[in-house]
Fold this sequence. Notes:
Layout: H1 3-9, E1 14-16, H2 25-33, E2 38-40, E3 44-45, H3 46-50, H4 54-58, E4 69-74, H5 78-91, E5 95-100, H6 105-108, H7 120-133, E6 138-143, H8 153-162, E7 167-171, H9 185-194, E8 199-202, H10 208-217, E9 222-225, H11 227-231, H12 235-241, H13 249-267, H14 271-277, H15 281-288, H16 320-325, H17 330-341, H18 346-361, H19 364-369, H20 371-376
Parallel strand pairs: 1-2, 1-9, 2-4, 3-4, 4-5, 5-6, 6-7, 7-8, 8-9
Amino acid sequence: MTREEFSNKLNGALILAPLTKGGNLPFRRLCCDFGADVTVSEMAYARKLVKGDRKERALLRRHPSESCFGVQIAAKQPEEALQAAKIIEDSGADFIDINCGCPIDDTTRRGLGAALLRRPNQIAKLVQALSDGSPLPITVKIRTGWKNDSINAKEVSRLVEESGASALTIHGRSKQQRYSKAADWELIREIAEERSIPVIGNGDIVTHFEAEQHLSSHGVSALMLARGALTKPWLFEEIKESRTLNLSAEQRIEIYYRFSEYLKEHFGADDIGINRIMRFLPWHFTLFSRYVYYRYQDFDAQSPTPLIHQRLDPGIPASPIDEFLQRSDELSHRQLAEALLGAASPDQALANVLRLAAAAIAAPPYLAKQPELLAQG
């Protein structure tokens, strides 16, 4: 894919963000089912790629359904980044993304990720080296700044474009903010107006009406989805079809079962494979359990607080199975994962989860709190 073709591909695209742990190949495949146009690998450390680390190189694998796939790297030395770029090129990726936004301490203490925002000229050197030395399009993902009192996204964006990047993604929060506070979409809009390369907006998108607002009002070429996609992978379809999918618990379980099958295809269905899957699937339920059906009347385009931060009351669960899917405890998430992995069909998966839900509502402490669910059977 040439850089011009890549730029055209981004026009109006919905991109699945690079998600540490969550962005495994089976989950990316699931998002492609629902219309993700572009996918990005989990972050790979350039140094580990160059040293031949097997786990790191496994992150470069893509599924055939990923029509436009990029590999995100964490690097700070141009020479090392170039060596990693060659490995990525040989793996068949379509583009390379430089991580300048990861706020995780394990990354920033190495001078990588968001730590690079304190050294804008180093970011420029990385981009220049890769742009000159690799035929692949180079993109950069940044935050607004290192701290709230040192917002420098405009300066970094200018340097990134001048150094040859094909596109820029802006997560509208500083490293200090992590994932709290609302994303600064006005700053994203200002940068998109100043730059001539595609600017991709990222932050707080959980509905199609928010996505439509950002595409129409904030000047971005594309949208990157992260927590919204982790909570409901069908968000891509909602945005493309401009409608909200009010999926029943049964429909969601069918999707989760499909995901479990993708995990088994990727990691294996033997004991070793299942053990590996159990490192991921229960974790995914920490996000799936946060699903809320957002209505258009919940949305206020003028509100400074996006829907994802409003903690809307999901109301009384529609059924015992709905209640079980909303549980946030680790044990329930493990039980759900085991129920899916032990099923041979979507119907069996549903039956397994129904048994879990029935056992849960039979517990005396639960009956005292939710007798109406027991009445529903």
